[in-house]
Amino acid sequence: MSDGKQALADWTTGAEAIVYQCCAACGTLQYFRHSFCRACGAPGPIEKRASGEGTVYATSLVVRAATPETRAHVPYNIVLVDTVEGFRMMAHGDNDLAIGDKVTARFAQFAGRLVPYFEKVK
Amino acid sequence: MSFITGVGLTAFGRHQGSSSLDLMSKAAELAIADAGLTRAEIDGVLCGYSTVAPHIMLATVFAEHFGVRPTYAHAVQVGGATGLAMTMLAHHLVEAGVVRHVLVVSGENRLTGQSRDASILALAQVGHPDYEVPLGPTIPAYYGLVASRYMHEYGVTEQDLAEFAVLMRKHALAHPGAQFHDPITVTDVMESKPVALPLKLLDCCPVSDGGAAFVVSRERTSETAVRVLGCAQAHTHQHVTAAPGLSGLGAEIAIARAKQAAGVAISDVRYAAVYDSFTITLAILLEDLGLAGRGEAAARVRSGYFGREGEMPLNTHGGLLSYGHCGVGGAMAHLVETHLQMTGRAGNRQVRDASIALLHGDGGVLSSHVSMFLELTR
Lengths: 122, 378
Prior knowledge:
heterodimer, A: 122 residues, mainly beta, 2 domains, five-stranded mixed β-barrel, three-stranded antiparallel β-sheet, 1 helix, 8 strands, B: 378 residues, Peroxisomal Thiolase, Chain A, domain 1, 11 strands, 35% helix
């Protein structure tokens, strides 16, 4: 990070975690990691680990994939989840998830990478 | 003031052995001839991009290849919105007096120049490299997400979406240049192979070879002329993860600004040319633009409203869904067809009245929008 703070490891770098950022100046949350707040431009947003709890916003079950690596996994469900913390993220999820389902995250291997995977809260 | 003085369009489908430059040249030649101009009179060149043959200076590569020496030239990249974005820029360039005749051109051998997987993969890169692409989404999946949410919020069904595919195919049947010539039914769409649910194969536009071009000029070159009344853009996000809610998408913003710029209302519009990469794209855009009430676009398709004989003829060439999609040239075909309709040259597809047209393009995942109004002047 530009202000010298340690970035928290998350699934994008192979760690079993979902991380988001919160601006100390204006309180805006953001999921995509930046060295500044996209809302007000303040540097060094605070990194936080998300709980992995959320609600399904949208789903799309991929049946036709474009690479041999991803084709091995079809069908796989791409989901957008609104987290309880208040940011939206893309992930994988159970194939039968419906919009509005309360979900919780685990992590799964997909095409040689670690990805967040949401299951319905039982 | 600016006029669209000439248009050119190749057939879409397979052009085995044609390069992107070949297809661009073919369309450019048609457009310049249609404008009644010579190559030497072209002093501006705007071109799109080619995923098959990417180049950092495609406009100058094309200019050299085609044999023109413009005083203004560069490529433009706004995904599916590129064609109308170039038209908007050309409009402002000629209005500002920078150039007299801008050639707007694009073409790509996307079907025969690379594998379908390569096309799908290249396009999936509109996703976020760290937070989306590793999850293996495809372009249909990005739009599948949007579709699932839209259907959920507005009670739209898969059968509703299928209506748009059927309509575009019906229109394509009347155009010899279209990629598809077989009629389809709602059942055919419903039974087509699942791609990224709720989207199925026939909800998705094909990959095509083809080229399209037009000339935008400061003065008319014939008695019947098509004038750019006004246009506007909106860019709200790039990645679907960062998209605003369905009520805040860029089409609504762009159309509001374009209406203001053009001084017209939707009730003035007689012909519509709307981006249709997927059935859901068309459904959302028609409703965002105000051409149908929320959740009501499919009912308007069923009632014939968007048909050739209807109140608001839409994409009478068959759109991306059935005329085909060769990249930037895909949506430019919408403008070519609009021009033919406005100038009474659409032959067996001719509509009664296309005196004022609304065009809308969308790039990314409803990320970048351009709305434009054209008017026929005599």
